[in-house]
Amino acid sequence: MKLCVILPAAGASTRFHGGDKLAADLGGRPVLLRTVEIFTRREEVSQVIVAGPPDDFDSFKDRFGAGLGFHGVSVVEGGRRDRWETVHKALQVVDPTCTHVAVHDAARPLVSDALLDRIMTAAETLDAIVPTVSMSSTLKEIDPEAGVDAGEGEDLVVDSILGEAGRLKVDAQPITRTVDRSRYAMAQTPQVFRRELLLEAYEGGPLEGVTDDAQVLEQQGHTVHAIEGEPTNIKITTAEDLRLAAALLGLAAPRRPRDPLLGG
Hints:
This protein has 8 helices and 14 strands.
């Protein structure tokens, strides 16, 4: 196997209050570099591509260029809208000698070698692999269109002065049924595909509305196989996720996110 790894990094970190989550300090190194290092030490990986934000590309390269360059990473512009656009752009520069492509969330810096070993072994015989985690809680289907406010009752005098700040609002949605959780799982990354198949799927579309790369193949009738993932393979989305990642790595709690000086 000769693997190319694509790390989409064009998101705006809107739910990570306090700065860029990929630049956040995690044990002395930015989250993005920790993720990159997972793959640059793997023998089967011959190319790593990071796709950054096109509207902030020069600044992105200023922040991460030195560290990524040290690891031999290619940096390209990603998309402005959805994740699929970023992956599509990165696919244009994949080395044609690669047999497989892995797409991994840039903000998942805790994927283990044991999980990667399972994925790579499965990818030797299967065309498309996704690590998943089973649902441990009872799974409910809700109707988001029929929500109600179950909070404190209205007080016209208080509301006229304070507005919504004057009372506790509690959104509630009706449950329509309980779902058989054994048939559902939460998808993780890296998702690994045979290169030609992924390229054909992305060129065959449609792509609007897809939320991961496996869905692109699923829409075209290709079989995607799930293997056991890891609960610790978390994606950093919020500041709380960053603190959890530090705890899982046995690190001190991170300080307020900032753009650190980058290096190898």
